[in-house]
Amino acid sequence: MKSLCISKSSSFSCRGVITGDPYIPMNVVGVPDEVARRMSVQERVTDYNIAQLQGMMDRGLCLTHEDANSITHSLDVGKANKKRTILKVGETVNRRILDGDAVFVNRPPSTDKHSVQAMYVRVHTDHTIKINPLICGPLGADFDGDCVHIFFPRSVSARAEAIELFTVEKQLVSSHNAKLNFQLKNDCLLALKKMSARKYSRREANELLNAMFTAGLIPKKRLSGRPEWSFAQILETVLPQENKI
């Protein structure tokens, strides 16, 4: 990464100011639409994805199309395919960046291996790159005008390597001191304290669990009287079995 991407210029990359967005997951980076529509990912047409790629081609989501004779045809991004180009198996399509694509995020200077994170794209209409504030630690960011680089791996092997080796889930623990790279900030700790100061009814417990994006049921053990559940019981419902409170 350092020798091939970070220390050299790259065509498929962007640089922008970062802002915090606590409503996106830690492994997601918000990419402006004006950037996403100029970057591309290479897709080989197969029997499994030809219908999907043909639909993207018709909606104007592809930048270039390489036919079986290795001739590259430029396409108008954002405009419908009026000529109705029919894709065939074996051809190559360079489509624009969409939600869920894997990218490399780096905030220079790179001081350690954790300053390079593989994250998933969420396209938005603002003009800054957005990250969750909890990931500021490994990136060394503090939202005072910091800029990050985003590199867009184009081949399937490059995207697979990014997901398997550099994702946030693979770098939870620091390789230098065996400590967690991500820690709760003041706003999260304050929220936990305020939410632990009261008890919750059955309806409120279900609403909190739904907000945490879990399929778990409400706690079985009840407290005496109403309301019936404490926040600790609700919180342990979404934690792994080995991390019960």
Automatic annotation (TrEMBL):
Domain of life (superkingdom): Eukaryota
Keyword terms of this UniProt record: DNA-directed RNA polymerase, Nucleotidyltransferase, Transcription, Transferase
InterPro entries xref list: DNA-dir_RpoC_beta_prime, RNA_pol_asu, RNA_pol_N
EC number from the UniProt entry: 2.7.7.6
Record flagged with keyword Zinc: no
Segments forming domain RNA polymerase N-terminal: 1-196
Keyword Disulfide bond set for record: no
Enzyme class: transferase
Coiled coil: none
GO molecular function, one term: DNA-directed RNA polymerase activity
Gene Ontology biological-process entries: DNA-templated transcription
GO cellular component: DNA-directed RNA polymerase complex
SMART domains (alphabetical): RPOLA_N
Designated name of the protein: DNA-directed RNA polymerase
Annotated source species: Aegilops tauschii subsp. strangulata (Goatgrass)
